[in-house]
Amino acid sequence: xxxxxxxxxxxxxxxxxxxxxxxxxxxxxxxxxxxxxxxxxxxxxxxxxxxxxxxxxxxxxxxxxxxxxxxxxxxxxxxxxxxxxxxxxxxxxxxxxxxxxxxxxxxxxxxxxxxxxxxxxxxxxxxxxxxxxxxxxxxxxxxxxxxxxxxxxxxxxxxxxxxxxxxxxxxxxxxxxxxxxxxxxxxxxxxxxxxxxxxxxxxxxxxxxxxxxxxxxxxxxxxxxxxxxxxxxxxxxxxxxxxxxxxxxxxxxxxxxxxxxxxxxxxxxxxxxxxxxxxxxxxxxxxxxxxxxxxxxxxxxxxxxxxxxxxxxxxxxxxxxxxxxxxxxxxxxxxxxxxxxxxxxxxxxxxxxxxxxxxxxxxxxxxxxxxxxxxxxxxxxxxxxxxxxxxxxxxxxxxxxxxxxxxxxxxxxxxx
Length: 416
Description:
transport; 13 helices; amino-acid transport; alpha/beta
């Protein structure tokens, strides 16, 4: 019987830019480079624009895995050949149109393996291109159900699809005292957030909680004062925001400025990042979010060793503050490498078939994909974390917790 992500966790505590003009060698992803054979991974990532904070986190995860495999492990043996790894990532500037142009260029120039961007609005059109070209994509930046329910065969994600991401959250909210009775959702009308909110509503209602409001915002948000007025008029116990990083900061700031208090603010994206904590200071304390990895998790395997070993390696080699996004980015590289080793081949279709059958454990957890390509929801579902005294602490599930959840949280004025 498979061990679930919840069962296996134990917590003890909480430049790579290819110029847009760069050309790729044709005819596949393996080429000679300084006497060694090299496998090239292509793709785009937001290094600027609205998603740059998290996009660069994922990029640093790619970089960490490639550095480890090339420099510490001497490359990877696939069949009878040993390969080094390289990645050619363009800055898509958080723009889907730019991303698709760049991805099509890479396909035309012979890149055979792709890593994903960040944001379902970018990955959706990008994976349509790689799907038509029959080139695999492994990504850590898109959870929209639309990525995985259109009968695609070549795209894989290390997270569950959006509608299946709230199982742990529902259990967490159900565990709180005093009991959570009324919940409200705010979500943006984009390819990821809407599915996540709808899946969350079902998960919470299945646990006996009432969802009082489902408030939809436009994809790009500049003001939520009217929405917050309605929240103040009839406050829920918990306000859940299924939004991206910038909108999460905006909502929290306007909640502070308008005195909109709830027993718990839960934002699915944003609070994991250093940028969020810097933007909000002490007001970030008490906010709950999801995390798909913790350095205290009892995961281990080849390549990096334990989750803590990965964290130590990352901090030794990179200055950017560590979040779970680095771990998920590195996991994409390991998934590719393990699949290629299992296949004994670098042919794209062989690699795709091996990814579909992948079942292995590493520092990130137990990586296995569903038949549709998203992460197995029982093995790769999220932890629940809370900002406490400037740190991100795992608070649920209990066997993984480094700290007890603060609930109800202090009012905004008491956090100043």
